[in-house]
Write a structure and sequence with these properties.
Blueprint: H1 2-33, H2 52-203, H3 214-226, H4 229-246, E1 259-265, E2 271-279, H5 281-293, H6 304-307, E3 309-314
Antiparallel strand pairs: 1-2, 1-3
Amino acid sequence: MRNSKLSIPIIISIILHLMLIIMLGYQAIKNIDGINYGKETGNSIDAIMIDPSVMTDQYQRQLKTKESQQQADKKREQQLVDQAKELQEKQLAEQQHLKDLTKERIKLAEQLKKQEEERIAAEKAAAEKAAAEKAAAEKAAAEKAAAEKAAAEKAAAEKAAAEKAAAEKAAAEKAAAEKKAAEIKAKQKAEQAKKDKAINDLLGGLTSGAPNSPSDQSGAAASRKGSSDDELAKYKALVTNAISNKFINPANVYSGKSCVLQIQIAPDGLLLNVTSSGGDEALCREAVAATKLATIPKPASGLYDEVKNMTVEFQPK
């Protein structure tokens, strides 16, 4: 490319030289045709001689100037290219820096997010663990309380069952003893009546010990007359107290309630029979059981006929 640029001025210079030579030749030919031979006078020819070295120097200077200009232009172009490249590199570096900063910010944000998630997870795990421990403790306490309650209820039930069994056994034994005593008493009474009848029959019904004799009736009437209401009330109070000693009133569930008891006893206070004739049903059931376990005091001989079939209104204390 550079050789082609240099050949153009050389060709132009050669063409100019040829044109100049042609012009000079033409002028010379013309002057030769018009020469007056033998005469000294004639027109002088002004000729300009071109020194090829001068033209070469001038051409070389132009060429150098052009090369210098081209080099300057090329240098400026290179500078522009270098500046553009440098600017591009700076822009690329700045973009890379921005990318790096963006990556760092994203990485930092991810780290912060991860730390926050870990913190939340740790707090959640701690809360769940605390809740689980609390639930376990409450469950253990509830199970312990339930076990203690069940044990207490079982013990109370066993105690109640044992007491009931003992009471039933004692009542059965007492009933059997009372029945046997009643049978013995009835047998003795029958035998005594038989003996009395035989004696009455033998003496003509004039014995003073006959049960239907006027003397016995008058004695019984005197006995009843001799017993006062105060003595009867005192004896019933003793019977009620004996029943209360055997009566169980848990948590005062029977307080304010009453039961009417019909009690039949022997002369020595032995309980022959007891029934309820009115009042709270549950209370009466417990009162009858307590009466069977109670030790009924022996009544006074003059009071027996009035208390052998007595009515007692029982109210728990």
